[in-house]
Design goal:
single chain, 2 domains, 6 helices
Length: about 150
């Protein structure tokens, strides 16, 4: 479980605090009843206590900024992801960067090799995780081959 770090100000600041407190109490009760199958990630508390400076809010002063989102995500990953999962996430991030690369010479042999290498990396991840659907990525890369 987690409680959203996004401020819900429709009912005012006080109403937001009551809403968040109610959610936190409900989660606490569920965790006490089912300790073996529940856990809590403190996204709301991280935003409130560690990222309390307004530079960590978006322009609307309600939503977390991109920097805050990245910080909270990194904390989540370090708490809940295995080292194997972190490695696959890193590999996938590299594949995404490769797929978004804009070549100066898309017809060049070097770029064609780059595409084939990226496809190979995708296939390696698919071997590790057969249920990971990479069909769209592979098709997008195949369309770039000349």
């Amino acid at each position: 479980f987690t409680v959203s770090p996004i401020r819900h100000l429709k009912d005012g600041a006080h109403g937001n605090q009551i809403s968040k407190a109610t959610l936190i109490l409900a989660v606490q009760q569920l965790m006490e009843r089912h300790p073996e199958s529940t856990d809590y990630f403190p996204a709301y508390e991280i935003m409130l206590d560690e990222l309390r400076d307004y530079r960590f809010y978006a322009e609307d002063m309600v939503h977390p900024s991109n920097q805050a989102i990245q910080y909270i995500w990194n904390r989540f990953v370090s708490c809940f992801m295995s080292s194997d999962t972190k490695e696959i996430m890193h590999q996938w991030e590299e594949i995404q960067k490769a797929m978004n690369h804009k070549p100066f010479q898309p017809e060049s042999e070097a770029y064609q090799k780059f595409i084939l290498q990226t496809m190979l990396k995708i296939e390696q991840i698919t071997k590790k995780i057969p249920s990971f659907d990479t069909q769209n990525e592979l098709e997008a890369l195949k369309s770039k081959l000349k």
